[in-house]
Write a structure and sequence with these properties.
about 80 residues; mainly beta; Ubiquitin-like (UB roll); two-stranded antiparallel ribbon; 1 helix; globular
């Protein structure tokens, strides 16, 4: 897993290789090869605490090994449960 600065969620190691994604409507630079699961963890969220979508499509927790690509739009949101 890659190292991130918790205060900025920026990679600790400066790397020329990376991608820029949109995270909750804000641009965010992440190291190349970062998975959705790594991003969720780096942001300090427990995997079950948030739901995720990439490019408008829901991504189940079991599919968060997906590598993020340049220009991906990532949304994190509270899962809604009820009856």
């Amino acid at each position: 897993m890659k190292s991130f600065d918790k205060s900025t969620s920026a990679p600790v190691e400066a790397s020329a290789k990376g991608v820029t994604i949109q995270l909750d409507d804000q641009p965010k630079h992440v190291p190349a090869g970062t998975t959705l699961a790594e991003l969720v963890a780096a942001l300090g969220h427990a995997p079950q605490a948030v739901s995720t979508a990439v490019n408008g499509a829901f991504v189940a927790r079991t599919a968060r090994d997906r590598v993020l690509a340049e220009g991906d739009t990532v949304l994190l949101f509270q899962p809604i449960v009820g009856g």
